[in-house]
Write a structure and sequence with these properties.
By secondary structure, the protein is of the alpha/beta class. The protein is built from 17 helices and 30 strands. A hairpin with a 4-residue loop joins strand 10 (184-188) and strand 11. The longest helix is centred in the last third of the chain and has 19 residues, at 571-589. Mn(2+) binds at residues 210, 230, 281. GO terms for molecular function: phosphoenolpyruvate carboxykinase (GTP) activity.
Amino acid sequence: MRSHGSSLEALNRWVDDVARLTEPAAIHWCDGSDAEYAELVTTMLASGDLLPLNAEKHPRSYLHRSHPSDVARVEHLTFVCTPEEEDAGPNNHWMAPAEAHAKIDALFAGAMRGRTMYVIPYCMGPIDSPIARCGVEITDSPYVVANMRIMTRMGQPALARIERDGSFVKGLHSTGDLDPERRFIMHFPEELSIKSIGSGYGGNALLGKKCHALRIASHQARREGWLAEHMLIVGIENRQGEKHYIAAAFPSACGKTNLAMLIPTEGYRKAGWKVWTVGDDICWMTPGEDGRLWAINPEAGYFGVAPGTSAKTNPSALTTLGQDAIFTNVAVTADNAAWWEGLGEGEPVIDWQGRPYDPANGPAAHPNARFTVSAKQCPSWAPESEAPTGVPISAIVFGGRRPSLVPLVFEAKDWAHGVLVGAAMGSETTAAATGAVGVLRRDSMAMKPFCGYNFADYFAHWLSFDKPGARLPRIFHVNWFRKDRDGQFMWPGYGDNLRVLDWMIQRVTGSAKGVDTPIGILPAKHELNLDGLDISPGVVDELLRVDVEGWQEELSAIALYLDGFGTRMPEKLKAERLKVSKALDAAVIRPKASVA
């Protein structure tokens, strides 16, 4: 039974085709209304898909428990299906489109029998923004519908824009039977379509998120001349009331949300500094008429990692979670409040799988437990998040988990060097994806799991923005995760990271000179504001030290990594790596030049 349809015939035809394939008991076109959401919640409470939480501590908030085999992104089951394998690149798992459609459609056949098929029109970005793009996700999961309502501009306004534009990204999803052997996430960039089956987990099932906003959008962006990136967007307002917007790319679970919601230290607050949150995960940037890159956050909510979130690490996130949130795979306390490792208060009594908590079974909350909540509930939410034009980006920051070698901060010498810095970025793996944790891997621009085409072509696309008239952002690299010999973090992080952003803004405005080193420009002595920080000068010196021999080894590893992408790798990027390598060789001859 269809609740209603669209004036766009192509959309109606696709919905009918999917219904014939999946055989649902009913079809519901989502309008995004409060009444619809309330009905979804009632349905899920009745089925056990949602569990109510303590109404005083978590008003209108709920817990969802995934199947234990379905708790993270599954990169080995995620495919980019282009006609030519080379177009997908070594950075993606590839399958020929015809083979992929046949394989996954066989699993979709009859997959929605006895279920309601939901049609979700959504917009990634402000409805009226020229940077925004739309999609439609078809799913049999009410949990997905509820999350998509929080994470996107979903429902009637989005459908109206789709009908005006006449185009949309097609996303088909079913939880199927949740069998890991019958689980695939297929992307068809040339067709602007996605098919996902066998998982209910966010990154695999909320198709507006990583699947559309990064894998498909990166393909669109290359074709149309913009960038779809795995980046937070944060606004920094200094004591003069000037705002600078910074986009930062970190791999999952490496502190994007914490930086996006950064709370200034007392000294900075008293001096009048403010931080504004535009986005915590995804950034779409396009060149403006003024030559600058203008960015929107295509999402409307946060799908954040809960473990480690506390009043100390991210008080803004806890405030944001005060109401109307969906928690996934967290534990609960005796009074039925959400709990996770690192929260710092309360004790778990029921673990994320619904069992009485026993430390012998592992953590109480899954390490990749999540929260979904509207961005507008964040106390530092930036009203500019709704601006159709987006915000101008002053600086782009790359960074990952590196326990050694990489300094606290350095600036690329120019755009091409910055692209190399982003391309060479490495990080220790986290629990956000299946597989071993703590292994160093290259994660270029934090896009290793998300770029919808060959990385070599992606790097070339980044390089193409450096053209006459462009006023491009400065590019920096940070490393909050340096450890000392005892395995302790050397930099306090969190609110104190604003000290590093302060220096970046000084570099952007020309008020900090920095010091030139073979790997980039580092803060000169006394340029980094350390007032009120309990850290010894020796630690700061170590955080900013350039280990020339170590970097020579790093550059050799980077060369092997870039060569792995074959003949499409831009010669300009190889030349840039060689330039840095020669500067390091010269620094060995003159050791003092290697130390910041």
